[in-house]
Amino acid sequence: MKAMGTDPRILSLAAEVAISPEQNVPVILLKLKEIINNTPFGSSELKKVKQDIYCYDLIRYCLLVLSQDCSRIQGGWTTISQLTQILSHCCVGLEPGEDAEEFYNELLPSAAENFLVLGRQLQTCFINAAKGEEKDALLHFFEIVTDSLFWLLGGHVQLIQNVLRSDHFLHLLQTDNVQVGSTVMTMLQNILQISSPVIRSTATRLLLLMAESHQEILILLRLSACYKGLRSLLNKQEPGTEFSQELRHLIGLLSPKVYQEVEEQKLHQAACLIQAYWKGFQTRKRLKKLPSAVITLQRSFRSKRTKMLLKLSRQKEEEDRRLQLQLQRQRAMRLSRELRLSMLEIVHPGQVEKHNREIEEKSALIIQKHWRGYRERKNFCQQRPSLVEYKAAVTLQRAALKFLAKCRKKKKLFAPWQGLRELTDACRVELKQQVDDYIRRHPGSEVSGVINRELHSQAQERLQHYFMGRALEERAQQHREALTARINTNIEQLMKAPSLKEAEGKEPELFLSRSRPVAAKAKQAHLNTLKHIQAPWWKKLGEEARDEIDIPKDELSIELGTLFIGGTKPP
């Protein structure tokens, strides 16, 4: 129920929150800080303002905003840190009235838990931050959140037990960062300074929990000089009914016997850790080999499955084919019987036997035809390898004969005269018979043996002269071809030769002729051209440039000393 005489500022703020979109609510709630700061501290007016804030559920709005993701809140950690201050100040000194049970059992524990969650988030962001300025800002926001939590615990001592038992608070204590750890330990020291039996029991349980969960803390409590009188101090405490069992347990952990057990337990844990690392290494090693083994297994399984499916499909196809053949046979038998019955109805009774004989003969012919075809196909399959061998032999023989024919042809080309072939006896007899027949038909004058020998020697000489002349002609032909090729090359070089102005280096030497007559003729033409150019104009009248000019041999010899003629040597 809402109180009477509500502050108009709270009323307008609640209305604005109700009609504003969700992303603008955190910024609107920050106006509560100005309202609280403008109200005198400890006055009845401040209590009235806090009751109005609670009545209009603005505290719950603050809790809802703090439970959201910080990246979605406008202003980020700045807005969140200010909302934690507003929430802690509103909850301390508030008299909820009729809703006291809900306020103390639900709202306050939820607020403390949200503060711890925000602290853990800030701790994570601070550790992951890279820049120094960002770290300083996050540490400042973390200190604001811890101060707000301490302010809330100072006003509501019963929340200390919940905070000290929280897992989030334990994680805050276990941080490796010095700055965050010092801030948390300062808050813990401030909390423990509050005088309350509940706090003493909670602190004892917390210390016992830390000693049991982390053996390093127990060893530190026993060996460190800072905690040297802790066991004697605990013995002086009067054990209450609430936490006497926890106190005795903590004193027992700090005894030397328990320390020895802790050392043994530490060695046992170290051995377990080494075994765990070794087993992990072996497991990772096996896992690295596992993909190849799995791939091989999958490949073999898939191939086997493919083969099985292929076998099943083939069996199914064969079964379907067999059923189709059976159906075709049944259909053919049925059709033949129907045809036979229809023919029997048409045929005259006296012609039935004749008709049956014709059908039997046709059937016998069909059976014989199929049997002969089967037998020939079987023989062909049996003779097929021999046929393949025969074809291969024929192909090889053909290739060999072609190769030998080419070899003989090449021999004939490179060796045109190989002498006369040797005659067999049968060829000699046949040739002798032909000669006798020719002599008998064409009788000639009688010639003595001396004349025959002379004619034979003359024929041999002419034949020898022919072969010698043939060799000389071949060499002359080769020489002519070489000269022709040389002339063609020289002509091609002359066609591609540069002018005298463009010639450089040894390029003119490439066009020197090895023939003395050619060089002399070229030199003669060159000198004629020079004489014609150097002669006065009146001597050129009536002359042609192509007319030859007689040059004395002395001048020729003089010029020959300055110009090289190919094919000659200097004296």
From TrEMBL:
Task: State whether keyword Coiled coil applies.
Answer: yes
Biological process GO annotation list? cilium assembly
User: What InterPro entries does the database record attribute to this sequence?
Assistant: IQ_motif_EF-hand-BS (IPR000048), IQCB1 (IPR028765), P-loop_NTPase (IPR027417)
What's in the GO CC field?
centrosome; photoreceptor connecting cilium
Q: Which residues cross the membrane?
A: none
List keywords of the entry alphabetically. Calmodulin-binding, Cilium biogenesis/degradation, Coiled coil, Cytoplasm, Cytoskeleton, Repeat
Q: Pfam family example for this protein? A: IQ
Which compartment or compartments is the protein found in?
Answer: Cytoplasm, Cytoskeleton, Microtubule organizing center, Centrosome
**What SMART domains does the record point to?**
IQ (SM00015)
Which domain of life does the protein's organism represent?
A: Eukaryota
A GO molecular function assigned to this protein is:
calmodulin binding
Q: Its function?
A: Involved in ciliogenesis. The function in an early step in cilia formation depends on its association with CEP290/NPHP6. Involved in regulation of the BBSome complex integrity, specifically for presence of BBS2 and BBS5 in the complex, and in ciliary targeting of selected BBSome cargos. May play a role in controlling entry of the BBSome complex to cilia possibly implicating CEP290/NPHP6.
Q: What is this protein called?
A: IQ calmodulin-binding motif-containing protein 1
* Source organism (scientific name): Balaenoptera musculus
- Organism taxonomic ancestry: Eukaryota, Metazoa, Chordata, Craniata, Vertebrata
This chain is encoded by the gene named IQCB1
